[in-house]
Specification:
With 64 residues, the chain is mainly alpha-helical. It is 56% helix and 0% strand. The longest helix is centred in the middle third of the chain and has 21 residues. It has one domain.
């Protein structure tokens, strides 16, 4: 289970599908960048992506 939960990150009127797609795209970007730079990730890319969205450093609108 991911912490924080999706409901804590997005608002009432935000689209859950767009949120999930944005998380998947950002996780793919993180994984690709790590592979291209020969970096071994300690945390899973999805967890890193969720943390970025939760902190506000990445927005859903950046991917949609």
């Amino acid at each position: 289970m991911l912490r924080p939960s999706m409901y804590q990150i997005i608002g009432k009127h935000d689209n859950y599908y767009e949120f999930v797609v944005a998380i998947a795209q950002r996780a793919r970007d993180i994984a690709d960048a790590a592979e291209n730079n020969n970096i071994s990730l300690i945390e899973k890319p999805v967890k890193l992506a969720v943390e970025e969205f939760a902190s506000g450093s990445v927005k859903i609108n950046d991917f949609i």
